[in-house]
Design a protein that fits this description.
Layout (H helix, E strand, L loop, with lengths): L1 H35 L3 E2 H11 L1 H17 L9 E7 L18 E10 L2 H69 L5 H36 L7 E2 L9 H6 L5 H4 L1 H17 L5 E9 L7 E8 L9 H67 L5 H36 L12
Parallel strand pairs: 1-4
Antiparallel strand pairs: 2-3, 3-5, 5-6
Helix pairs in contact: 1-4, 2-4, 3-4, 4-5, 4-8, 4-10, 5-10, 8-9, 9-10
Length: about 425
């Protein structure tokens, strides 16, 4: 028995040496390839997304459009040019003559309307509020891009960590298969034992296929925000942000989705002011030059006209009441959104605490126990006191535990990123990128 295990250990040593050489070569090849390829650290991915994501470019264009639309908001209407013929005879010997009748005149006039100052100021206020609203939506777009890019990066990072664990177990499985075959050749293992490592290898291949599909899906999601850069190899880890319940709750009211309600309210205020200003008369000035026949003198005309808002109760007042009702609805919607975000934040903070505890439990308890179980099962099998199926089951359980631990860590990181990019102030973190 001692000689058998001695031979087995020698064979394992040879296999380990060959696999060690293979691993070193693989690492060197990997390092060389990484030296040639670009890497994608976490913050670089976020900055690239802010610069390149179509959603951000679209929101920036909307803000630019609002700024351009605000330029003519306080200007006077365009003047009007009037050309015409007055008092042209259509009967008698002088019909259709422009010079025979002293009353016939060729007329050219210019008219300018002057809306009252309150109406023009209200329109300027509304234009400024629409710029602020576009800026608020631009911040929402930036926040969305940062949050979704971070989530996609972390999902891919976790899947690649799982693949790395799986690759380690594939190497262990080959060594395990070699050991079982050596025992079977020495008559120390049943024929059915030889099959079990191959079954385990097939199970590992199945899990690898599943993880490769998840990795492809994560890259596809990342490509939505980064384009071709999503195919670059990831580098590093995400920052370890401090999640403070008190600080996050204080910043709920500064959430970009809630910030849009302020400019919306300002727009309604300006529209109500404009409706009230419509009760005051606008006026217009018209100048005209009238040319008559050569036997008659030319004439000029000056005319001032005024609006007469006599029917405010059926025209301006209903518009004012409608805008006031919209204000009430907007205030209620703002309060509903605030309550919703507070409830979501409390729920996510509770979930974050659970994930922290789960990650700690995996690290301090479940992973050590899974390793211990494999060690005990392997020792029992080598001593003839246990079955090989127990070793395979313990190894499978350890694999699931390690993969689940990676998932738990990733879920905590994703939730931390979601909280950070939803409520924290990002201006300092992305200085020079955020406008």
């Amino acid at each position: 028995m001692f000689l058998f295990f001695l031979r087995l250990r020698r064979r394992q040593s040879l296999v380990l040496r060959s696999w060690g050489r293979f691993a070193i070569a693989s690492i060197l090849i990997g390092v060389a390839s990484l030296g040639q390829a670009e890497s994608l650290p976490f913050h670089d991915a976020l900055r690239l997304a802010l610069q390149d994501a179509p959603l951000v470019r679209a929101s920036e264009a909307q803000t630019s459009a609002a700024r351009q639309a605000a330029l003519p908001a306080g200007e006077l209407p365009d003047p009007k040019l009037a050309l015409g013929i007055e008092n042209l005879p259509i009967e008698g010997p002088d019909r259709y003559s422009l010079t025979a009748d002293f009353m016939t005149m060729q007329r050219i006039g210019l008219m300018q309307e002057f809306p009252n100052a309150a109406k023009r100021n209200a329109r300027m206020d509304a234009a400024s509020a629409r710029i602020a609203l576009s800026k608020a939506y631009e911040q929402v777009a930036q926040q969305t891009v940062l949050r979704e890019t971070a989530q996609a990066w972390l999902v891919r990072h976790a899947v690649e960590q799982q693949l790395s664990v799986l690759d380690e177990l594939v190497v262990e499985n080959r060594l395990f298969d070699t050991a079982i075959r050596a025992q079977h050749a020495g008559g120390k293992a049943a024929a059915t034992d030889v099959v079990m490592p191959r079954q385990e290898a097939a199970m590992l291949a199945q899990r690898r296929d599943e993880l490769m599909a998840k990795r492809a899906a994560a890259i596809a999601q990342l490509r939505r925000w980064l384009g071709a850069a999503a195919d670059e190899p990831l580098a590093g880890d995400m920052p370890d942000w401090s999640i403070s319940r008190e600080q996050l709750i204080r910043r709920v009211h500064q959430h970009p989705e809630l910030a849009v309600f302020r400019p919306k309210a300002q727009i309604l205020d300006a529209e109500i002011a404009e409706a009230n200003a419509a009760k005051r008369p606008d006026w217009a000035l018209e100048l005209a030059y009238q040319k008559r026949g050569p036997d008659f003198g030319d004439m000029v005309m000056v005319q001032v006209s005024f609006d007469l808002p006599f029917f405010a109760s059926s025209r301006q007042e209903p518009l004012i009441a409608a805008k006031q009702a919209e204000q009430i609805a907007l205030n209620a919607e703002s309060e509903a959104f605030t309550r919703e975000h507070l409830a979501m934040l409390e729920s996510e903070l509770a979930e974050y605490q659970r994930l922290q505890q789960s990650e700690t439990r995996f690290t301090e308890t479940l992973l050590p126990l899974a390793d211990e179980k494999v060690t005990l099962a392997l020792a029992g099998w080598r001593a003839g006191a246990g079955a090989l199926s127990d070793v395979i089951a313990a190894r499978r359980e350890r694999l699931e535990t390690r993969l689940s631990a990676i998932v738990a860590t990733s879920e905590r990181e994703q939730l931390a990123a979601r909280l950070h990019f939803t409520y924290d102030d990002l201006s300092g973190e992305f200085a020079g990128v955020l406008p």
